[in-house]
UniProtKB/TrEMBL annotation:
SUPFAM superfamilies: NAD(P)-binding Rossmann-fold domains. This is Short chain dehydrogenase. Belongs to the short-chain dehydrogenases/reductases (SDR) family. CDD domains: 17beta-HSD-like_SDR_c. One of its GO terms (molecular function) is oxidoreductase activity. The keyword Oxidoreductase applies. PANTHER family: NADPH-DEPENDENT 1-ACYLDIHYDROXYACETONE PHOSPHATE REDUCTASE. Keywords: Oxidoreductase. Transmembrane segments: none annotated.
Length: 285
């Protein structure tokens, strides 16, 4: 039987790179896509196909997916992993930055789905796996744009699952907690650049301290890649996979606590983190 074909976006680092490796080790023919092709040399060496793709460029998506469909003859799994965290207060993040967050995290994902669907429908099979986050269910201080984009992924995925069931195509959402990668650094740099001074400076520092502490306990990308393996390979995949530092307890708290209690829990966690980080800084002086 022909090898199953998988596409992974955002495969040049962190979670996406590990997902590409895992699916390949599980016997799939893998196409790894990202803008920084040079960062995927090690995937190339393993035998994974690497191609340039900027998911904010709809024409490039069309062209790259057509190329893969022609070359491989089928597409069995699409992992929409590419994403970034635009942090900062709603008042201060420029609307164009917020639009870009959605262009990459949401519209890029939808365009990828549109591009693979004709092939998957023809096959009468396929798996679409969308990278959400525990932030797809939880509000987050200074994280409105990122959180909004991940909430959108959750809603789109739930609706899409209904649409695609009659065609034999399944949709799963991955909800990781804190994972060590480049993501946190990019998000915090953005946060401090936008809100590090001015009326939200204190909240920005609290957020930065919270991330500094939380990411000390971050899980490795392998944890997420294993969730994707299960979503891609199980005979009956679950609709959601939750894992990685903090995800299960936080999503459990979200399910049982009223909104105001959840807000209070968030504030308490951020204050506690700031206290710990300040103590550590004083100790290190
Ligand atoms: N790290 C966490 O704690 C965490 C937790 C929950 C969910 N997530 C989600 O997991 C996904 C992967 O994040 P990560 O932690 O692995 O972060 P990362 O190391 O920063 O990787 C992000 C990936 O997305 C790609 N990307 C960004 N913009 C792109 C664009 N315009 N076109 C194509 N690719 C683009 C990057 O590739 P190029 O720059 O080379 O294009 C890179 O490969 C994201 O969707 C993120 O929201 C992360």
């Amino acid at each position: 039987m022909a090898r199953k074909v998988a596409i992974v976006t955002g495969a040049s680092s962190g979670i996406g790179k590990q997902i590409a490796k895992n699916l390949f080790r599980n016997g799939m023919d893998v196409y790894a896509l990202s803008r920084r092709v040079y960062k995927m040399n090690e995937l190339d060496d393993l035998g994974i196909h690497t191609l340039h793709l900027d998911v904010s460029d709809q024409e490039e998506i069309e062209q790259v997916v057509n190329q893969i469909a022609q070359e491989a003859g089928r597409i069995d799994v699409l992992v929409n992993n590419a994403g970034l965290g635009t942090f900062g207060s709603i008042e201060e993040v420029d609307l164009s930055e917020g639009e870009y967050e959605f262009k990459v995290n949401v519209f890029g994902m939808v365009k990828m789905i549109q591009a693979v669907l004709p092939t998957m429908r023809q096959q009468k099979s396929g798996r679409i796996i969308n990278m959400s986050s525990m932030d797809g269910k939880l509000g987050n201080l200074m994280g409105a744009w990122y959180v909004g984009s991940k909430f959108a992924i959750e809603g789109i995925s739930d609706s899409l699952r209904l649409e695609l069931k009659p065609f034999g195509i399944d949709v799963a959402v991955i909800e990781p907690g804190a994972i060590s990668s480049n993501w946190k650094g990019i998000a915090i740099d953005k946060l401090m650049e936008v809100s590090g001074e001015g009326p939200y400076a204190q909240m920005a520092r609290q957020t930065s301290d919270f991330f500094a502490l939380a990411y000390k306990f971050a899980s490795t990308p392998r944890v997420v890649a294993r969730m994707v393996d299960r979503a891609a390979l199980s005979r009956r995949p679950k609709t959601r996979y939750v894992g990685g530092a903090g995800a299960k307890p936080m999503l459990w708290a979200r399910r049982i606590l009223p909104d105001r209690c959840m807000d209070a829990l968030n504030v308490a966690m951020y204050k506690y983190a700031q206290k710990i980080v300040n103590k550590q800084t004083a100790f290190n002086r």
